[in-house]
Structures are given as C-alpha cells and as structure tokens.
Amino acid sequence: MTRTVYVNGEYLPETEAKVSIFDRGFLMADGVYEVTSVLDGKLIDFDGHLARLERSLTELDMDKPDQFDDLLEIHRELVRLNGIEEGMIYLQVTRGAPGDRDFAFPDAETTRPTLVLFTQNKPGLADSPAAKTGIKVISIDDIRWGRRDIKTVQLLYPSMGKMMAKKAGCDDAWMVEDGFVTEGTSNNAYIVKGGKIITRQLSNDILHGITRAAVLRFAREAQMEVEERPFTIEEAQGADEAFITSASTFVFPVIEIDGAKLGEGTPGPAAKRLREIYLDESRKAAI
Ligand code: PDD
C-alpha cells in the first residue's frame, strides 16, 4: 500500500516525496515533531499537539511553516486520503534547507521551514495486547540534552534506550538522572502508591506530554489523588502499580522494573481505570 504523504504544500505518493539533502533536520537534527493519534477516523488531543508544536518552534527560534494555519485541515485530509480509522499522524517541521551545511541558522530569506506529515495505519491501536499484559521496563542513565521539554527529532539516545530494553528482554527503558526517574524513552512515567498517582512535575527535564495533561485532568476529575514530584527506581519497585502514557500507547500498565515485579506482577486497577476513562473521553472529544 502506497501512502499519500504531505510535503510543503503537496499531497504525494510516499515514493515521490522528496526533501533536500541540505535539510537541517537531516544534517543537524534541527527539527521538531508531533505524533497525534487517530481513533474512529478522528484526531485525539489535536489542540494540545498544535499548541506544543508552536511552543517547540518558539523555544528554538524557528519560523512557523507557511501552512501552519492549515494543519488541522492537512491532518484530516491525510486521514481521509489514507483511510485511517486507528493509527497515528507524524508531523515534522525543520529549519529548512539552505544551499549548504552551516552551524549558524540560515537567514529567513535563504530558506523556509520544511513541513512533512505522514500517516501510520495501526488497526487495533486502542486494543493493544500490551494494555492487557502490561510492559516490563529497565532503568538507564538519562544522558539526553537539557531541553527535553522541546519535542526535537534528536531521538538517537531514546532509540538506543529502546534497544537496551529489548536486549534485556524488556519493552522500554525509564531514564534516571541524579537518582530520579525523568521519563520513558517515548512516554511519561507514573507510579501509584496507596491510591495516589505520582509523576514527575513539569520542567525542562521532561516532555510535557499531551496525554499526561489529559490523564492527570481525568484522574483529578475522578477524585483520584495526584502528586507531581520526582521518584526513584527503588520507590517505583515498591509501588502498588506503575504505568506510562503517550499518544501512541495512551496508558500502558508497567508490571516489572529492573526485574522486580510490581504488586502481583499484573496490571493494576488505577492504570486500567485511567486507560478506560482516557479512551472514552478522548473519543468523545476527538475532532
Ligand atoms: N513520544 N516523553 C517523551 C520523551 C516522548 O517522546 C513522548 C511522546 C512523551 C509523551 O508525550 P505525548 O503524550 O504528548 O505523546 C513523553 C511520541 C509518541 C513519539 O516519539 O512517538
């Protein structure tokens, strides 16, 4: 199946879409991205992803792509053209492609940002087996740069972290800095103790997850107690349960951390409940 993708104003077959070899996303990882999930053919948390994209661009002093105001329409058109019922839309903006490699940012007259979007068809996304079985994580050092609040395409270390987890027979890695968990390789991390949901507070140390914001809001609305503070791997191993959130997983329970089973070693009730509420509410609010 050839996808229809979007590049700088054009809808094209994926085999015909092209970006310059001088693109700063390719040469310097000078780009930002968003992943928005699709359920029932509709976009989940679109406004949140758009707002975070705008913030990422501002923080990096990068111009908005010329088609910024049309992004909702472009997302919807890609969903339509590719017949996506469940899946994801990947969006990337880079600082463009000046005619040569240079560390200094190019002048606005030299190039415009590159905008690329493509769909990922994932039938069964909302019914993933991992939501029922839970996932196993290992801990690794967090050696990423200091602006993790900006959603840049610098994903080599998270990618290596995923491989370390795979090698250890696990599903993902939680990153640890100064003794405390920051987040998962591509998700936010939570523990639950005595009914209280604990997750690291927002700062430059973690990505401000759009799913995180929604899940914490739903948790509070459901009278669940939420505490935003750092926690250690030891505290997590002694917790009643743990889970992760992201646009591609929604809520996945964590059943094992560095070989230590949490509680019974099966998905816990808080993660299960939050996943259900998140999916229900998000489907209702999808656009
Ligand atoms: N990743 N933390 C990191 C480091 C992430 O890469 C992500 C998302 C999240 C969760 O953010 P959100 O809830 O807005 O998806 C947290 C996406 C899904 C990815 O890279 O595919």
TrEMBL record:
A GO CC annotation recorded here is: cytosol
Alphabetized SUPFAM superfamilies for the sequence: D-aminoacid aminotransferase-like PLP-dependent enzymes
Q: What class of enzyme is it?
A: transferase
Pathways involved: Amino-acid biosynthesis; L-isoleucine biosynthesis; L-isoleucine from 2-oxobutanoate: step 4/4; Amino-acid biosynthesis; L-valine biosynthesis; L-valine from pyruvate: step 4/4; Amino-acid biosynthesis; L-leucine biosynthesis; L-leucine from 3-methyl-2-oxobutanoate: step 4/4
Q: Which cofactor does it need?
A: pyridoxal 5'-phosphate
Is Magnesium one of the keywords UniProt gives this record?
A: no
**Entry-linked InterPro entries:** Aminotrans_IV (IPR001544), Aminotrans_IV_CS (IPR018300), Aminotransferase-like (IPR036038), BCAT-like_C (IPR043132), BCAT-like_N (IPR043131), Class-IV_PLP-Dep_Aminotrnsfr (IPR050571)
Entry's PROSITE patterns? AA_TRANSFER_CLASS_4
UniProt cross-references to Pfam families, sorted A to Z: Aminotran_4
The record describes the protein's role as:
Acts on leucine, isoleucine and valine.
- Which family does the UniProt entry place this protein in? Belongs to the class-IV pyridoxal-phosphate-dependent aminotransferase family.
* Listed name of the protein: Probable branched-chain-amino-acid aminotransferase
